[in-house]
Amino acid sequence: SGFLLSQDPEFGWRNVFFLLFAVNLLGLLFYLIFGEADVQEWAKERKLTRL
């Protein structure tokens, strides 16, 4: 952020927040495209049967 704040502080901070917003938005889009909500096999409860 030091490079971005070397200009006018208000303009620099606006750029910092827009950059952080863009990074966060890219993460959201990546998750929406490639993320899954399926329960994995290892997370399912096993039902024990008594003999």
From TrEMBL:
Statement: the UniProt record of this protein carries the keyword Transmembrane: yes
Subcellular location(s) per record: Membrane
Keywords: Membrane, Transmembrane, Transmembrane helix
Residues in Major facilitator superfamily (MFS) profile domain copies: 1-51
Regions that span the bilayer: 12-34
Stored PROSITE patterns: MFS
Membrane topology per record: Multi-pass membrane protein
Domain of life from the UniProt record: Eukaryota
GO CC annotations on file: membrane
GO molecular function, a single term: transmembrane transporter activity
Signal peptide: none
Listed name of the protein: Solute carrier family 17 member 3
Organism: Homo sapiens
